[in-house]
């Protein structure tokens, strides 16, 4: 089967990203464009259009209007996902040899750019729930303790990255955290890949977007948390701690010289759609419906985990002795295609389209799974063995470039990793280049591999 024929495959319920639900929730103007003769709209950077970095043209005008609307300095559309814009933001904040403070649940794109630029990731650990296997959002006190553990000058710390909300939708007010970083004169990049729609829904008791909490740089994934096509993203720049010229230079460094006109139009239309009163009220209705879906499933005694993102339905399969990977295969074979299986949970993304028949269908498949699956008594997730603050033992850029060889993970105890071990999704690193595979980390990764096929009998490159 070719890729193109697979793309037309029907699923009973696509509950994954992109959040436009296979076109059902795309902005009307984009749908109109896509109905024009195929490929007609695929234009180069004609002067009338320009690029995200031009001063003139339709893209510049549109970005300017969004900047004014949200009272920020600059807004840049991106066509290489949140990943690409996060990477530009990282190299804007730090030069090779400098350090950035970041949580352990940071996205793999950050690690890759740190490795290629030799920017030291100084990781801080996070609170962890052994009931769900998920990291919890951090508090101001937690961050204060982290700061107390580091000599910022000695370690050349020049910025902080926060992930908010998390992949699953956990959130805590991050304004106090941003203020704390600003008191130390450190700029903050917030990876808000999963929280773009919060920006438009201040009335729905949803988390406040970090853009309204004075973050210096904020990156949104428009296909994950708005109704953009895959790869669309936006970066917002605020305040004076990040140099604008440096940011433009960094975006230019990583951006393709041929950004897709279709994707750029999708960036614009997805944001505009949420500023249009009529479509906004439709999306807000969807969000309220998602909250009702959650309540109805709970009433049916289906074990769900509550987060602050109503569009994520997180099944706590472990409550019934079933791991998330087994549940995922079962749901998949019954036409409900989930987004993220993990040891204790299975996460579904409702997206922005109508999910009319969701509750009954979900209940039916869940009950069928309960009848059909073997239950395990001792399903458990081990707390990750990280210190509160930890950096790779060997500089990440040096480890990344060193001569490495591939050995079975089972033989890698005490070696220095040359690899990023990062099962996707959710794409958060278990091990980065330059870190030592000590006993605790070794046992922990072995434990994860009991359930995750990516980690089963795998090879790792070591120095
Ligand atoms: C927290 C977080 N940040 C960034 C990204 C990257 O987003 P994109 O797929 O738009 O590049 C992801 C993707 O899973 C993510 O979960």
Kindly, what is the distance between the CA atoms of the first and last residues, rounded to a whole number of angstroms? Answer: 40 Å
State the fourth-level CATH superfamily of the domain at 28-273.
Answer: Type I PLP-dependent aspartate aminotransferase-like (Major domain)
- The count of DSSP E runs of length 2 or more, i.e. the number of strands, is 16
CATH class of the domain at 28-273: Alpha Beta
The residue ranges in which pLDDT falls below 50 over 5 or more consecutive positions are none
The value of Rg in angstroms is: 22 Å
Instruction: Give me the CATH architecture of the domain at 28-273, please.
Output: 3-Layer(aba) Sandwich
Shape designation: globular
The total of helices stands at 15
Reported by name, the CATH topology of the domain at 28-273 is: Aspartate Aminotransferase, domain 2
Strand fraction band? 5-15%
Q: Residue-averaged pLDDT, rounded?
A: 94
Helicity level, as a percent range?
25-40%
Structural class: alpha/beta
Bound molecules: pyridoxal-5'-phosphate
- Characterize the quaternary organization of these chains: single chain
Main-sheet strand order equals 2-8-7-6-5-3-4-14
Report the biggest beta sheet as strand number plus sense, adding barrel if it closes: 8 strands, mixed
